[in-house]
Design goal:
Blueprint (H helix, E strand, L loop, with lengths): L5 E4 L4 E7 L5 E9 L2 E5 L5 H13 L3 E6 L5 H4 L8 E5 H9 L1 H7 L14 E3 L2 E6 L2 E7 L8 E5 L4 E3 L15 H12 L5 E3 L5 E2 L2 H22 L4 H5 L9 H5 L3 H23 L1
Parallel strand pairs: 4-5, 5-6, 6-7, 11-12
Antiparallel strand pairs: 1-2, 2-3, 3-4, 8-9, 9-10, 10-11, 12-13
Helix pairs in contact: 5-6, 6-9
């Protein structure tokens, strides 16, 4: 496959690299650099793209001092084996990469022939702090998209690297909607001008309120549906336009508008059914 990575400067020291995903959407890797060193946040999905990413770093005569995995999913971690640096993640990531990641690798065996899981070398529980040159980076455990999801807050730049807790459309099939809403509200408290999403490039803080409203409106609608005896299949067919602004909905890739939205409806139905039983 031809490798064509998109590169977008976020600030003087922060660069967003966007690769491709088999669902037709993008996936983010972020470089935070100082001098001749760089910290990489998340690998890309295709090995060829991660190889090209590493070559970009070498072409700038820089070296990778650390790789940070924002969560365990294959499109953010399968390139770990191509890095020789330390690999940092939340403690639950190691367990999930041992038990769940091999299943994802198997399901994408055609695209990822020969790919191997490489586990993090350093983990933390709630928060940790790393530096590169004079740049301080705070890593916080904020679950929601997955149980191990983390964000990276670069206070001096007013930038948040959000992983998949923030993406073009919230996705909670592997996580918990209430916890994601709580995490998004925690992010709202930070002094942030730009949020780098796990998919969808960078956005501003205003988008978080729309994401919260989307999830909370689904919770409210599904709660009423369960009380009324409406089935999960009927709920899964509720159109996204009932929960998201027309402006947002019409610009979404079909993977979000159709598949991911339906999975969100089904997940929240199951969450609320269990809580009411």
């Amino acid at each position: 496959m031809a490798v064509l990575l998109q590169e977008k400067p976020i600030s003087e020291n922060i660069t967003l690299i966007s690769g491709t995903h088999p669902f037709g959407i993008d996936v983010s890797s972020i470089l935070v650099s100082s001098g001749r060193e760089v910290i990489v946040f998340d690998t890309l999905f295709y090995p060829q793209e991660t190889v090209a990413l590493i070559q970009k770093i070498k072409d700038k005569q820089m070296s990778v001092s650390a790789l940070v995995n924002t969560h365990w999913h294959i499109d953010h971690t399968i390139g770990n084996e191509l890095f020789g640096s330390r690999i940092i993640s939340q403690v639950k990531s190691g367990d999930l990469m041992r038990t769940e990641l091999p299943k994802q690798v198997k399901s994408f065996s055609g695209e990822l022939k020969g790919a191997r899981v490489k586990l993090p070398t350093e983990t933390f529980v709630q928060e940790t702090h790393i530096t590169i040159g004079e740049i301080a980076i705070d890593l916080f455990h904020l679950e929601g998209h997955t149980p191990d999801s983390i964000v990276a807050y670069i206070k001096d730049s007013q930038v948040l690297i959000a992983g998949d807790n923030v993406m073009e459309l919230p996705f909670i099939a592997y996580g918990d909607s209430a916890k994601l809403v709580s995490s998004l509200k925690e992010i709202e408290k930070l002094n942030v001008n730009q949020i780098i999403q796990g998919h969808g490039g960078a956005c501003e803080m205003e988008k978080l309120r729309e994401d919260i409203d989307y999830l909370e409106s689904i919770q409210d609608r599904v709660r009423k549906a369960i009380v009324s005896g409406i089935s999960i299949d009927d709920v899964a067919n509720l159109p996204i336009e009932g929960f998201l602004s027309e402006r947002r909905a019409k610009n979404l890739h079909p993977a979000y508008k159709e598949a991911i939205h339906k999975e969100n409806l089904r997940k929240i139905y199951k969450e609320l059914s269990e809580s009411q039983s």
